[in-house]
Design a protein that fits this description.
This protein has 241 residues and is of the alpha/beta class. The protein has one domain (11-191): 3-Layer(aba) Sandwich (Rossmann fold), CATH 3.40.50.620. Helices cover 35% and strands 10% of the residues. The protein has eight helices and five strands, in the order αβαβαβαβααβαα. The protein has a five-stranded parallel beta sheet, with helices on both faces. The longest helix has 16 residues, at 106-121.
């Protein structure tokens, strides 16, 4: 008897892109609340903040996600981002336009892998934690992009072409503020102490408190009226203007 099969029963599977950060774990919790059995997909793509892979592993263990794949791809061969090339991560700066931490076509690459995995699983739902409010400078976090990818996905797989089912890209956080995301995750019992958001953590994996991702996270917790349980370096500036 398969104990895991009994546990999931007739729940439909959904592929969830899980970076190990605050947004993706909230999307995972939402997928589960909506009745899906999450199949988590994490990428080791050459990012300088690879500590997020350890965070993703902690999350799936704590949340009892039984299907977690870590996929190796190398976006450093292209570079073009402070996360995949020898470019300093900006600290304590207000970003304008598309920030240097944008990784060219990253969400398109990730969603393409998720689409392939969903097709193998017989799943028709993909969850991604993109957000257009706090990350409006990222072109691949906009509603128009998600809608366009979903349209493409329904032209690209056997089941959708044969008319078996329609594939959906779920972006439940896309119009939420960071504070709203934190409140929703807290309602769902997410342990944000397991997550990491920093683009430039120290050698022990502690957050810098000064990059865009840290500042957005700290601001979100402050506005949500909740303490941030994340690990920060002793020298980190945790005050957000």
């Amino acid at each position: 008897m398969c104990e895991y099969c009994d546990m999931i029963g007739d729940k439909p599977k959904a592929v969830v892109l899980l970076s190990g950060g605050l947004d993706s774990v909230t999307a995972l919790a939402i997928a589960r609340e909506q009745g899906y059995e999450p199949c988590a997909l994490t990428f080791r793509y050459g990012q300088r903040h690879a500590v997020e892979i350890e965070a993703a592993t902690r999350i799936v263990e704590a949340m009892h996600v039984h299907d977690h794949k870590i996929v190796d791809i190398d976006l450093t061969v292209f570079g073009g981002s402070a996360l995949t090339a020898d470019i300093p991560v900006p600290k304590n700066q207000e970003s304008s336009g598309i920030p240097i931490t944008y990784v060219p076509a990253r969400n398109t690459v990730f969603l393409s892998f998720a689409l392939a995995y969903a097709e193998v699983l017989g799943a028709y739902d993909i969850f991604v934690g993109v957000n257009a409010i706090d990350y409006s400078g990222y072109p691949d976090c906009r509603p128009a992009y998600i809608e366009a990818f979903e349209t493409m996905a329904n032209l690209a797989t056997r089941s959708t072409v044969e008319g078996t089912a329609k594939l959906r890209i779920h972006a439940p956080l896309i119009e939420m503020s960071k504070a709203d995301i934190i409140r929703e995750g807290t309602r769902l019992g997410v342990d944000y102490g397991l997550t990491t958001s920093c683009y430039d953590p120290d050698s022990e994996g502690r957050a810098c408190g000064e990059c865009d991702a840290c500042r957005l996270r700290l601001k979100g917790f402050r506005e949500a009226g909740l303490p941030d349980p994340g690990r920060y370096a002793k020298s980190a500036n945790r005050a957000v203007a």
